[in-house]
User: Fold this.
Amino acid sequence: MVTIDDYGHYDTAWCPGCGNFSILKAVKQALVASQLEPHEVLFVSGIGQAAKAPHYLNANRFNGLHGRSLPVATGAKLANPKLTVIVESGDGCNYGEGGNHFLAALRRNIDVTLLVHNNQVYGLTKGQASPTSAEGFVTKAQPEGVTLRSFNPIAVAVAMQAGFVARGFSGMIDHLSGLIQQGIAHRGFSLIDVLQPCVSFNKVNTFAWYKDRCDPLPPAYDPTDWEAAMKVARQWEDKIPIGIIYRNDLLPFEEHFPVLSQGPLVGRNVDRVKLKRIMEGYG
Amino acid sequence: MTRTDLNILIGGEAGQGLITIGQLLAKSLVRAGYSIVVTQSYQSRIRGGHNTFAIRVGLDEVIAPQESVDLLVALDRATVTLHRQDLSPNGLILVDESVDVSDDASLKVPYKQLAKDKFSNIASLGVAGALLGLEEKLVARTLHDLFGKKHPQVMEENRQVLEAAFRWCSGQPASIHKLAPIANPPQRLMMNGNEAIALSALSAGLKFLAFYPMTPSTSICLNLAGHAGQMGLIVEQAEDEIAAINMAIGASFAGAPSMVATSGGGFALMAEGVSLAAMTETPVVIVVSQRPGPATGLPTRTEQGDLEFVLHAGHGEFPRAVFAPGTVEECFHLTRRAFELAELYQGPMFLLTDQFLADSYRAVMPFDVENLPPVSVSTEAVGSSPYKRFAITENGVSPRLLPGMSEHLIVADSDEHTEDGHITEDLSVRRQMVEKRLRKGRGFRAEVIPPDMEGQDKSDLLMVSWGSSKGPVKEAASRLRSGGQRVATLHFSQVWPLMPEQFMGHLEAARQVVCVEINATGQLARLIRRETGFQIKKKVLQYDGLPLTPESILRGLMTIL
Ligand SMILES: Cc1ncc(C[n+]2csc(CCOP(=O)(O)OP(=O)(O)O)c2C)c(N)n1
Ligand code: SF4
Ligand SMILES: [Mg+2]
Assistant:
């Protein structure tokens, strides 16, 4: 029996009141509900406040470069498809610095769960605009307010027919943990964009601001209906829909490789008879 | 009278099938027992332009390209115009009879008579092969190996064209370009540098390669992709080079021996990943195949301009080894060496090659792939729990376990970290970790491949070179020696770390030292000075995108000595 304690208790470097605490809790709950042992799980993260989350979880962890967690996760999953691979990082990390990897991950559909702590700001570097910052958001770097249009990760993911697309809110821990659990269980790429208040640098999208707007999708909502999902994906006004917005059951990327049906790539022998034949092809 | 050494140049437009004829002719020559050096020169375009495929062939080992041409196989008019000046005194131009050249040196071939249009290439192959004295049977077999299985119909037509070409040649005056036959030809392979790198990577146990296409490295990746299914490895075309190296690091972290291959521009994008591999102590082999820069430079030409770049790429301080093969055999052996070091010392290791060597086919003896073991990924069990991925050890190497393969948890961080892999700002730990990582360098400094010294120490002239320039420099030296001069060569196939005690004696004993490099500033000379204080003042530098030849080196020496 896996319990919350198996995932440890650590001191964190986050600000009191930060939404990251609740996300951490939801992650642990989801892991316990999935009955995954710590050594079966690999967390990969980039750099940022969100990216520190894996340090506060007792599991395998690879804390890489800013923006580059998805490629590392992709490589690790392909080398050992038995690992449950979860990426945890910020909105800047995934949608800004790592934007190209985000787009490729949507297309590749590898069985990796991406948890984006979306506080609509760069926390670690003290409050510059992120790709998801609202138009008009004022920061020291954008003193006249952001003029770029805000990035909508959900709409992009649904448009690309990514495997599993969900939005959660750090203020609704049980709901969020349910999404994470389903994301992990989904065979294929899962995006879970988590709205997360940053008490220090985002005074616009506060806990109350999200709480007023976050609205779970009704039980009758059908996430396999792509056209309906495209509509839901664009909603971001008085009501922000949360829940599983879109899903499909396209073949996960790693299942295209017959070599992976035998498990991890480590410890495989080199077939020297075949190799010799390849070499003789040059004769 | 037969020849022992010849230079053949095939020229034409891109898309004319010139590479196919070149490969077939070269392969036939190798099968007949000759030694070859192929130089491919092409423009960055898919159709048109002017491309060449040169085959220097010899009874004895040939090691370098040659400028003067003995047999010019001109597939178009432009080839005659552009290369007439390179023709040797007895040189011959093979050209279609319809091409308007009035030249004593030309042999006009009725290609239209010998073959239908789309087979005229095979006719030129046949004529060239016959003039060189190759057996029709042997050329036909080479053709068959390329086309036979897939297209039996095409093969039959090819065979007929070949026969017609050989028959036509037998009606011509005796060829003065016949190579002396070799009685019992050795069973050799025809392989270029990139093919040898790919084969070596397979033999070393490569299980994961991610790449973004960039000439001249792409063919390594395509070759491996072609063998991925049967050899059980994964080759993934990544979204960019940043993704490629980070995927390789992720795969290696999870236990798959990993590699990336790129050229200067792509490697520039990988630089932060190099540093990540060093910090997380993850093995990864990085192949950088050089082409002239800056920026996009000359995409399909050659240069040795990225030595300093590869030496310094990646922020922060960490140990690395850089290998620079001088021959196709060295491409094979040094790629394996890079894998061994990456695995043993857990970090990024480099192979620095270039377009010339990448595309240069040679005749090589088969490698002992049956007996060469793959690298072993260290997964030794550890007694003490909890496991510390970055345990401080005397040689700096920590026992490496893999995630998901045991109950032990593996933690790696690009931030400075404690022995158990967790982010830290404890500055005394920082100091210990820097020292631990650098200590690993001591281990492989003890195993540096010494530069190859040829000739007497007390020479009048010592030529220093690295990487693909090996053959041309050696041949230039031997030509000078046969003219009575005392000349020696010193070639580096491992350009980092440099171990002065391995070569200072040679540098100091020579009356004059000249560094020969394919770049404009003498990067190896500068590195030697930085590491040893020894200043090589005289340099032969070439930076027009072309490979060195013995002739170009000799011309260069004339202007400085
Ligand atoms: C290549 C690179 N560029 C810039 C940085 C500096 N940096 C670290 S975190 C960060 C932004 C973090 O924002 P986000 O990903 O949203 O995470 P948050 O801190 O908000 O959780 C930046 C710009 C870096 N570490 N690496
Ligand atoms: S800066 Fe913002 S995101 Fe970072 S820990 Fe503080 S509240 Fe959380
Ligand atoms: Mg953020």
